[in-house]
Amino acid sequence: xxxxxxxxxxxxSLKVLLSAMACWLPLATALAEDVGQYVxxxxxxxxxxxxxxxxxxxVSERARRKGPPLYYAGDKFxxxxxxxxxxxxxxxxxxxxxxxxxxxxxxxxxVIDRATLKDHLALPAGKTKLVAGYxxxxxxxxKPLLNSQYKPKKISxxxxxMDFNKFKGCSACHRDAADNGGVSGPELYxxxxxxxxxxxxxxIKDPVAWDVHTMMPDKHLKEKEIHKLVDYxxxxxxxxx
Amino acid sequence: xxxxxxxxxxxxxxxxxxxxAGSPPADAxxxxxxYKIYCTQCxxxxxxxxxxxxxxxxxxxxxxxxxxxxxxxxxxxLFKAIKxxxxxxxKSVLMPNWDGNLSDRQIDDLVExxxxxxxTKTGK
Lengths: 241, 124
Description:
Number of strands of chain A: 4
Helix content of chain B: 40-55%
Structural class of chain B: mainly alpha
Shape of chain A: globular
Strand content of chain A: 5-15%
Distance between the termini of chain A: 47 Å
Number of strands of chain B: 0
Order of helices and strands of chain B: HHHHHH
Number of helices of chain A: 11
Number of domains of chain A: 2
Radius of gyration of chain B: 20 Å
CATH superfamily of chain B: Cytochrome c-like domain
Mean pLDDT of chain B: 86
Strand content of chain B: under 5%
Distance between the termini of chain B: 60 Å
Largest sheet of chain A: 2 strands, antiparallel
Number of domains of chain B: 1
Oligomer: heterodimer
CATH architecture of chain B: Orthogonal Bundle
Low-confidence stretches of chain A: 1-10, 20-27
CATH topology of the largest domain in chain A: Cytochrome Bc1 Complex, Chain D, domain 2
CATH superfamily of the largest domain in chain A: Cytochrome c-like domain
């Protein structure tokens, strides 16, 4: 049932809604400001929250990093995953953010010095959603890097694995299973659940554009080759869930 | 007037020096920082090829402290391997190309450091 409304008049229900919004908007802004302050206070010590922090520094900045940059968190993560992870963080980088700082030389070759690795703090229950929401609002301002649409295609585990390990050499630094691959980069067997596919494509295509001091090489892969790798990450990621 | 001529001449001299000097020579200290960031994960903190990533590798990364072997490689060979990756020199695909991440000058710095690592007492 619709009521006719006189021109210029505001119906009662709309009045209620508008007054509720008038109350909520300043509150929401205040909350966002609070979250911003909270993130600056709690995260900025280990994570770059602006691109300038990295772009304006020389390459030795990479060796001082304690955590991955967050200035493009909104382009990178899946929000639900981020909320869950902030509540219950698990290690994604087996050798920490800067592996040489967590490596010791032994007679059997270099090994990870686990005693030096610090676990990420779990956020209090009331904060995870707010912080994840705030971080999802952080985007790269430079240029539109997310310009590829991902359309999943079928790939067999055998071919995907061969591509990842033998042909593209991703396994030099990344794990595609808990027991296979390098440990200096973040593990990729759960990449699908935590990252947006368009980001995966873009980051593989041009990692330096996202992070000028990234340790991820730009392999000059063709769009099709990148999509195949993402198809494999999807396959192993869904199997891991 | 004299001051103006002096200033103009000084500026010209400074500009000429810059043009003549070109890029600064490769620097092993800068190379050492780059090596730590980009290479030690596979080639090892000491450059012996036993980095933390090698456990699941089918081919061992090059031992940069192996003087005899490293002396057979020219600076040009090393530059090419770093810039274009293992595939470009018929070696393992696990050695990536760094041309998208590092400038030619940075690669020169790395080569300079490799020479310290392989062939000097400091490197050992």
